[in-house]
């Protein structure tokens, strides 16, 4: 009986997916026939966002992540951090690498790293699903350079949104951990082996080095082959990301053309694609606090486009998306609440006083999104800052893990 119900549920899900994809395809065809000029403009807008923001900001991190994962660095770091991340976040120690990667490179870099670890057999299906959701963040380039500086004309507000975005994402991951702790945890043979090694090892550092050597030996590729494979995988991921962004830009353009006001256009754009959703939110005539809260919610949810990008990476290897969707909703809710609660103290502390009228007078909101977006030189200027930020976040997780082991681990 249960098997019949499971088969029926699978058929229903497949049918719903087929209908949804068919509806999107029909909408795209209708868009091209009904308004070819607007469709071309929207696709160009999506391509511009991808080329000038996403591609240069994420490609180097995807290549770097693949090299470090194959070389065992991330797994060695995970060995040191496992006691801390298990108890604090309910995630394997490898989260000490994947979380900082997601926080600095943005999606879907964390999903790509999670898929690699799952293929290597280092994490279970459930751990991969939860890790991909907890490490799913928007890039600092988007929040500080694009939203804060470009869309709003207030760089300090972009930094404020970034702090709230990170805090809300970590809170969402911890909440999901507490909601799922009642489930019985299954221990794999590899985990038992690791635990036995941990007990016999004279120190966790030696175990970390041993695990790094094991991963590197199992991979077996030379540096040239590894670099070539990493670049190929990263470019393929970027192409998939760009394709999703282009399609959703067209869909948003068509739907928005039938809506009379920006207030109605924002929920559609925010629900579907984060870059265009953030741009739509900055055009709303609201108080700075409420506008920033809506921005935080849209950035935390990150759009259906980002969800499908992650599914394109995780779905083919058998990782489901239920916990990922729950994490996205929690992230958006927490970001909205945190922004409203922390608005006054953070603005007073940082001196950020955004005023919509002043921004409007400066002409920022009257420009097209292409004119506001940063160029390649501006994006690459902060690339070095992103690398340093990644290193600082990894170091912070390592310090927290060592502190936990010395003072709190029993």
From TrEMBL:
InterPro entries hit by this protein: Gate_dom (IPR011642)
Highest taxon of source: Bacteria
Pfam family, one: Gate
Domain annotation Nucleoside transporter/FeoB GTPase Gate: ranges: 53-145
Transmembrane segment boundaries: 12-37, 49-69, 89-110, 131-153, 159-180, 244-269, 289-313, 325-343, 385-404
Keyword terms: Membrane, Transmembrane, Transmembrane helix
Keyword Membrane annotated: yes
Protein name (Swiss-Prot/TrEMBL): Nucleoside recognition domain-containing protein
Organism: Paenibacillus anaericanus
């Amino acid at each position: 009986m249960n098997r019949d119900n499971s088969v029926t549920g699978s058929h229903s899900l497949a049918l719903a997916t087929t209908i949804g994809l068919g509806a999107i395809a029909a909408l795209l065809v209708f868009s091209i026939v009904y308004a070819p000029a607007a469709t071309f403009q929207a696709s160009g807008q999506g391509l511009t966002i991808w080329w000038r923001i996403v591609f240069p900001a994420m490609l180097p991190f995807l290549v770097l992540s693949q090299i470090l994962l194959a070389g065992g660095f991330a797994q060695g770091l995970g060995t040191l951090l496992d006691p801390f991340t298990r108890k604090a976040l309910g995630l394997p120690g490898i989260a000490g690498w994947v979380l900082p990667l997601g926080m600095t490179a943005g999606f879907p870099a964390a999903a790509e790293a999670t898929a690699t670890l799952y293929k290597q057999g280092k994490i279970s299906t459930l751990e991969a699903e939860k890790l991909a959701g907890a490490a799913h963040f928007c890039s600092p380039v988007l929040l500080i350079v694009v939203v804060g500086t470009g869309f709003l004309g207030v760089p300090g507000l972009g930094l404020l949104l970034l702090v709230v975005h990170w805090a809300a994402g970590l809170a969402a991951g911890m909440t999901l951990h507490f909601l799922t702790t009642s489930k019985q945890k299954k221990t794999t043979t590899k985990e038992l082996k690791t635990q036995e090694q941990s007990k016999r090892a004279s120190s966790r550092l030696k175990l970390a080095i041993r695990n790094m050597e094991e991963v590197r030996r199992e991979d077996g590729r030379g540096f040239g082959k590894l670099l070539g494979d990493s670049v190929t995988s990263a470019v393929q991921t970027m192409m998939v990301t760009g394709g999703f962004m282009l399609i959703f830009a067209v869909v948003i353009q068509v739907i928005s053309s039938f809506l009379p006001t920006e207030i109605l256009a924002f929920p559609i754009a925010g629900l579907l694609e984060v870059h265009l959703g953030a741009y739509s939110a900055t055009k709303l005539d609201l108080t700075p606090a409420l506008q920033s809260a809506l921005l935080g919610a849209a950035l935390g949810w990150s759009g259906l486009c980002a969800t499908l990008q992650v599914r394109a990476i995780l779905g083919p290897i058998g990782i489901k998306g239920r916990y990922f969707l729950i994490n996205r909703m929690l992230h958006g809710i927490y970001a909205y609440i945190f922004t409203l609660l922390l608005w006054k103290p953070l603005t007073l502390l940082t001196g950020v006083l955004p005023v919509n009228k002043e921004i409007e007078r400066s002409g920022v909101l009257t420009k097209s999104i292409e004119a506001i977006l940063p160029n390649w030189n501006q994006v690459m200027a902060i690339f070095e800052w992103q690398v340093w930020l990644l290193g600082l976040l990894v170091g912070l997780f390592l310090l927290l893990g060592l502190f936990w082991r010395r003072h709190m681990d029993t």
